[in-house]
Amino acid sequence: MSAVPGQPTLMQAALRGERLARRRARIVRERLIELILFLAALVSVFTTVGIVYVLVKESVLFFEQVSIVDFLTDTQWTPLFDDAHFGIMVLLSGTLTSSAVALSIAIPLGTIIAIYLSEFAPFKLREVAKPFLELLGGVPTIVYGYFALLFVTPLLQRIYPELPGFNLLSAGIVMGIMIIPYVSSISEDAMRAVPMSLREGSYAMGATRFQTAIKVVFPAAFSGIASAYILGISRAVGETMILAVAAGLQPNLTFNPLEPAATITAYIVQVALGDLPHGSIGYQTIFAAGLTLMLFTLACNIAGHVLRKSFREAY
Amino acid sequence: MKDLKQQIRSRKRWDAIFALCGLLALMLGVLTFAALFVDMAVDGFARLSWDFFTSYPSRRAGQAGILSAWVGSTLVMITTAFFAVPLGVAAGVYLEEYAAKNWVTDVIEINITNLAGVPSIVYGLLALGLFVYQFGFGQSILSAGLTLALLILPVVIVATREAIRSIPQAIREGSYALGATQWQTVRYHILPYSLAGILTGVIIGMARAIGETAPIITIGALTFIAFLPPSPLKAEPPFLSFEWLMSPFTVMPIQMFNWTSRPEAAFLTNAAAAGFVLVFMTLAMNGLAIWLRYRLRRNIKW
Questions:
Q1: Which residues have a Cβ under 8 Å from the Cβ of A93 and sit 6 or more positions away?
Q2: Is B242 near chain A, with CB under 8 Å?
Q3: What is the per-residue pLDDT across A224-268, written as a single tens digit (0 to 9) for each?
C-alpha cells in the first residue's frame, strides 16, 4: 500500500488528533487556572461588600429604633441603661481628642524624621534607622496600651499629679509614637522620589541643605506627604487597644485630653467583652458605631486620593 | 561683605540645628522602644519560667500561665496562614500576570488599597455579623483565623505583586520562547524567583496578625480558657481531626488584655511577662523578614 502524496496516513492522522486533543486540554486547563486566580483576586471585593452589608444591615435595624437626629445630636451615650441615650457625639469627642493628641505628635516628628533621613542622614544611618522604625510599627498595640497605662501615665502624673489613672493624653501620646513610622516611611519615600536635578538646581543657586529640603523637596513631594498624614489620621481614628486599656471605658463628652473618655473603638470592645444577646439593641449599636468609624476612614481615604491626584507634580 | 558672611553662618547654623532635631526625633523613637522593652522585661522577668508557659490561667496570679493562650495563638496563626497565603499569592499573581487593563481590574485594585486602610476592629464586626452568626461558625478558631486572614490579605497581595514586578520581562519571554504556557511560566519561573519576596510579606503579615487584639475580642473570644482545643492528631484512623477548628479559644494578646485590665498588681506582672513574650515573638518575626529582604537585595542581580 503506497501513501498518496499530500494525504496523511492513518497513523499521522491519529497522532494529529491526539495532539489536538492534548492542546485543547491544555487550553482548558490554562483558562481554568486563570479563572481560579481571578476568583482569589475577587475575594477583596467580596470582603468590602461583606463589610458594607453587615454594617448597613445591622445599622438599619438600629435606626428603626433610634432616629438619626437623636444619634447625631444627643449629648449622652447610655445605650445599656434603662434610660437609653444614643448620642454618637460623646464617643466621637473621645475619638477626635485622642486622635488630635496623637497627630500633634506623629505629624511633626514623623515629618522631621522623614526630612532628616531623606536629606541629611548618612547612608549607613538610614539603612539602620528604616528597619528599626518598621520594628516600632510592628509592636502589638495591646503592648503599647500596657505601656501607656503603666509607664507613661505614672510619668505624666509626676509632672501633673491631678491626672487621673485613665486619660486621653497618655493614650494619645503613645498612639502618636506608634503612628510615627507610618508617617515617616511614606513621607520619606515621597521625598526620595523627587528627582536629583531639583536639588542640584537649588544647591547651584547657593541654597543650604535645610533651605533645599524645606523650600524645594518638601513642596515637590507634598502630595505623597499629605497622603502619609491622611494614613496617620485613619490609623489614629481606628486605633482600639491603646485607648481601651489606657483611656478608660467611660463615655464622656469632652475635648479635654486630661480626662478619661471612651472612643468609638473602645466602646465596641467594651460591648464585645460583655455578653449581649445577638439581635438586641446593644448588639446593634456597635454596628452603628462601626459604620460611623468606617464612613470616617472612607472619607479620609477619598481625601487622600484626591490630594494625591490634585497635587501630583509630574517630572 | 561682613553681612554676607554672617548670613551664611546663620544659614549653616540652621542646617546643624535641623540635623540635630532629626537625630533627636529618631532618638525619641529609640528611647520609647527601649523604655517599653526594658519596662516589660523588668516587670515581667520574675514570672518568666517554664511553669508560666505550661500553666492555664488562674484566679491566683502566681499560678497563672499562658498555656491556653499560646496554643490558641498558634492554632489561629495556622488557620490564618492556610487561608491568607494561597489567596493572597493567587490574587497577586492574577493582578500582575493575567489581569487585563479594564474596569474590573481597577475595581479590585482600588478595593485592596481601601481595605489596607480599614481599621482592624471593622474586620471584627464583619466577622461577628458574617462568620459567627450568618455562617454559624461560632466563636471558634475558624472564625478568628478567617478574620485575620482577610485582615492581612492586602499585605500578602502587595508583597507578592512587588516581588513579581521586580522580575525582568526577559525571563518571561525566554520561557514563552521555549513553548511554555502562561501557567507554566508562572509555576516554574515567576513563583520560584519571587518566593523570598513573598515570604517576607507573609512573615510581616503574620507578625501583624499575631498581635491583633481588637478583631478577636469583637468576635467574642473568651478571656478565661482553662482547657486546650481537641488535639489535631488521633490514635485511630484517619489520624487527623479538625474538631479544634470549632473550639473556643483565647490568644496571647487577649490574655494580656485580660490581665492588664485587672486591678491587682500581681496580675499586672503577668501582663508584663505575657507582653514580653508577645513583643519578643513579633520582633523575631519582623527581624527575620528584614533579614530576608536584606539578603534578597544582596544576592539577586538580574
A1: A252, A253, A254, A255, A261
A2: no
A3: 898 889 889 988 998 888 998 888 888 888 888 888 888 889 988
Locate B56 and state its grid cell: 492555664
B33 shares contact with chain A (CB less than 8 Å) = yes
Is residue B273 within 8 A of residue B164, CB to CB? The reply is no
The tens digit of pLDDT for each residue in A97-117 reads 999 999 999 999 999 999 999
- Which of A95, A98, A108, A99 is CA-nearest to residue A180? A108
Binary contact (A143, B275; C-beta < 8 A): yes
CB contact under 8 A, A142 and B256: yes
Q: Tell me the count of A-B CB pairs closer than 8 A.
A: 261
Measured CA to CA in angstroms, residue B6 lies from A46, A77, A214, B9, B11 at distances of: 64, 61, 21, 5, 9
Q: How many domains does chain B have?
A: 1
- Are the Cβ atoms of A112 and B21 closer than 8 angstroms? yes
Torsion of CA B171, B174, B179, B182, to 10 degrees: 20
Nearest to A261 by CA among A281, A243, A288: A243
Q: Which residue segment(s) compose the domain that B218 sits in? A: 71-230+282-299
Domain containing residue B161: CATH number: 1.10.3720.10
B64's torsion region: left (phi>0), alpha (psi -120 to 50) or beta? beta
- A77 forms beta bridges with A86
In this structure, is the dihedral angle defined by the CA atoms of residues B223, B69, A134 and B268, taken in order, positive or negative?
positive
B108 located within any domain: yes
| Whether the model pTM is above 0.90 | no
- Look up residue B247 and give its DSSP letter: S
DSSP B134: I
CA distances from B141 to A137, B58, B257, B281 (A): 26, 22, 19, 20
Residue B38 lies in a domain: no
Domain contains B223: yes
ipTM associated with this complex: 0.86
